[in-house]
Structure formats: C-alpha cells, structure tokens
Amino acid sequence: MRISTFTRAAIVCVALTSPLVAQDSSGVCCGRAAGAKQPSFFARRSQGEFTVIQSRPTGDFGQNIGLGYGGNAAYLFDLDDAGLLSLRADVGFLQYGSESKTVPLSPTIGGRITVKVSTDNYIVPVSFGPQLTWPRGSVRPYVNAGVGGQFFYTQSSVDNDGTDNSNISTTNQHDQTLSWVAGGGVYVPVYMRHVDALLDIGVRYFATGHAQYLRPGSIQDLPNSQIAITPLESDTHMLLVHVGVKSAAGR
Fold it and tell me: Which pTM does this prediction carry?
C-alpha cells in the first residue's frame, strides 16, 4: 500500500511540474499558435523587469545609515536579434530609516486630540547604460554599466486614520548626486504554461559623489513649533542587491 501511494504521488508531482521543465535551452517553451499575429519589431526586442532590492551602503555612508529596502523597475531594449547587447534603464525606490511620534493636533487645543507624525528617509537610484548578456542556456550571466544618480529626500507626514483622503506631508530635506554604476548577475529561465520569464539575481554598485541626507534623529523639535535639522554629508557609495523577475523577449 505504501509503495502504491508513493508511486501515485510521484506521478502527480511529475504531472504538475512538467510545465516548468525547459523545452529548449534557447529560451521559449510555448510555441505560438499557427496563424497568430507576430509581435512588432519593438515588442520583440523589449523586456521589462521588476526586482526587490536591498541597499548596502559602504564607507562613511555605511557608518551613517543602515540597510534600505524597496523595489526597482527596469526596461531593456535589445540591440541585436540574439539579445546579446541591450540598453538598460533602471529606476528604484527604497526606504532606509523611519521614526514616528504622537503629538497634539494643534498647540491651541492642547493634548486632547493627537495625531501620529511619521518621518521617512528615501533614496531614488536611477541609471542608464549598456548590458551584455549570454542569451542561451539554463544559467545566463550578464554584466552592465552606466551613468545615473541618487536622489535623497526625507518626508514627514500625518498618518491618515482612514476617515478621509487628506494627505498632509512636508519634505524636510532633499539632495542629489551623480553616479557611475556597474553590476552583474544571472538569469535563470522559468518555464510555466503560457508564461516565459527569467529569474534575475544580481548586484549593482553605485560609485557616487557627496550628498547631504538625514537619518532617524536628524530632526529635532524645538519650542514654538520650530525644528532643527542636522544633515549628514559624505560620499554615498552603495551596493544594491536584487532578486526578481524579468520578462522574456517576445521573439
């Protein structure tokens, strides 16, 4: 009885996972139906990507702030039919620190009505440049480089309690700096029914100039509703580690 049950379970597992098995190491597992409309030249060479990112600041920057977390979206356009050389554009969004406090809604009414004020610190990294990819096989390494920048800003806002659509916020500080970017990683094809995608695991390094930025504790509340802001300043070199999904080219 145990052998029979195990055998049936194995058959079911094979049947369920068979759509994930690569039909061809060249990349596309699901053939298009005869007579189906072929994608345009632009669509055949366009790919999109979304990844979850973790920032790891280095040097003085790493001494001043901790890790950050967020997301990154990328667009790639292949310059050749094989997909060996592409142009890549990235924009990310990550948060590296936050703090909150409960304060009176207004000093004129005292502490009977309070609100929660949150202060969040953000980085928006962007880059543009070429990417070289080995476009075949079950593991496809790639390297890229480019120019870009990092945008820093800190924002304080009153948390919405859900009673209306108001959004009260103030940008306390902002700055930006240029970056040189270099990175690499691997694509791993994932084959599912009606979906062709690539798992992307990689890292990019941002070599940047000086910028001013804040961290939790950089804003101090003073009497008479005033604040004191003490920004930090340093080179802002950092690593971005990412994992996510990239669409396969529509060839």
Answer: 0.79
